């Protein structure tokens, strides 16, 4: 008469079928905790810029004309560095007493910090190091620094929205207005 082992073989098979999905689930959970993809700009619902426009396509001649008399676009100064991370454009006055520069900086995710967090850190630097004044109702946060250098007035404005900082730098004859 055969002796029945009480189904131990069936229990081992059932345990191994249960163990494999649990191990796969644990491996995925550990990878997610280390990678933290929800901090990346591509994550659904994340409102961060993944690319930038070229600054010279945004700083048009009409805008420059309002800020400078007889502006001339400085073709030798257009910077697109580290694809999609920075872009800058400069307009100058025909004489050397006026400059307007527009620059974008996009901060990507870095380690366990989102791009917005990295841009926020940079804005804290502008706030505490450069002696700036807060500008209200402009982006997520904005700061301005103005100084007189003889008859030249120099004004910088930094505005952040999510992971992008827009920097407008204007230097010109103080009689041209603020």
- Shape summary: elongated
Strand content: 25-35%
**Number of strand elements:** 7
Give the end-to-end Cα distance, rounded to a whole number of Å: 104 Å
Q: How would you characterize the largest beta sheet? A: 7 strands, antiparallel
Note the quaternary state here: single chain
Percent of residues in helices: 25-40%
Structural class comes to alpha+beta
Topology as a string of helices (H) and strands (E)? HHHEEEHEEEE
In spatial order, strands of the major sheet run 1-2-3-7-6-5-4
Protein model, in words:
By secondary structure, the chain is of the alpha+beta class. Helix content is 30%, strand content 33%. It contains four helices and seven strands, in the order H-H-H-E-E-E-H-E-E-E-E. The protein has a seven-stranded antiparallel sheet. Strand 1 and strand 2 form a beta hairpin. The mean pLDDT is 77.
Would you spell out the secondary-structure blueprint of this structure?
Blueprint (H helix, E strand, L loop, with lengths): L7 H28 L19 H4 L2 H7 L3 E11 L4 E8 L4 E9 L8 H15 L3 E2 L6 E9 L2 E10 L2 E10 L5
Structure in a nutshell:
By secondary structure, this protein is an alpha+beta fold. The chain is 30% helix and 33% strand.
Keywords:
alpha+beta, 4 helices, 7 strands, 7-stranded antiparallel beta sheet, elongated, 178 residues
